[in-house]
Here is the input.
Amino acid sequence: MKLANIYGFLRKDLQDIENSLTETIEAEHPILREASLQLLRAGGKRIRPVFVLLSAQFGNYKQNIEQIKSVAVALELIHMATLVHDDVVDDAELRRGKPTIKHLYGNRVAMYTGDYILARALEVITTVNIPKVHHSLSKTLVKVVEGEIAQIEDKYNVDQDIKNYLRRIKRKTALLIATSCKLGAIASGVSQNQANQLYRYGYNVGMSFQIIDDILDFTASPEELGKPTGSDLSQGNITLPTLLAMKDPKFLHELKEVFKYEKEINEVDIHNLLHLLLDTDAIEESYQLSNLYLQKALQSIKTLENNKAKRTLQTIANIIGKRRS
Here is the structure.
């Protein structure tokens, strides 16, 4: 089952958010406008707006719908901005099977496009007159940037452990999903306790979601990924499967040899590393850790009201755990 099929009852509000995203990134300068729209047209799961809307269902949803939608738009714009910056750092040519802004327009335009989208996100969130929302979002943005710097520092570094990795994906992915849940809840007027429960759900789902993404980088086809298989390794990013495979002396030796040359890594190197990694238990062990986070996510919302939103959150967690593309 596809994720989009389980939250059909949010379709109208999600379409409103999609329309707002298009309106918000309209720019006077033609290159900036086209670059921003290029990213929006590439699509995406819109997971963060979905979590905003679902979490808001535990409060006064209809009464606060406009500020709830504003929160959703702002968080998706922030996510989009980080993707543009990521592609520059990773020198990525494809995202979701389409050319990146960096590839089409170069690094300078890409960086300014990311900055522009982030600025528009901050403009949108100012329409939400809730200090808690601004405080929480600003703290999250600081952590996200710290995570991006940590990823750059850890490139090609084989002397790191799982603790490094978990801290990195927390800041790279989990915090923004957790914040989406929390801010959706706050915008609809839920209690602090409920907002915290939803935040913990989002954090654990976000950790699992990123682990699954990192697994799929090794196991999915280029068509499914929208980019070459093994892209993380070719960019020097050491993810959970690689860390677990490093317990195998043969794989570790080969990885060190390949990483010595850093940017000179070729397809043959990646193919050999993929073959060696898939011969270990790294993929299975990675799924096991992902499942632990999903169980924590489900436990986090166990005491919440048993409504359609809760059941949808539970279903999303289960689908993420079974995701293979």
Notes: The longest helix spans residues 192-219. DSSP finds 17 helices and two strands in the chain. The mean pLDDT is 91.
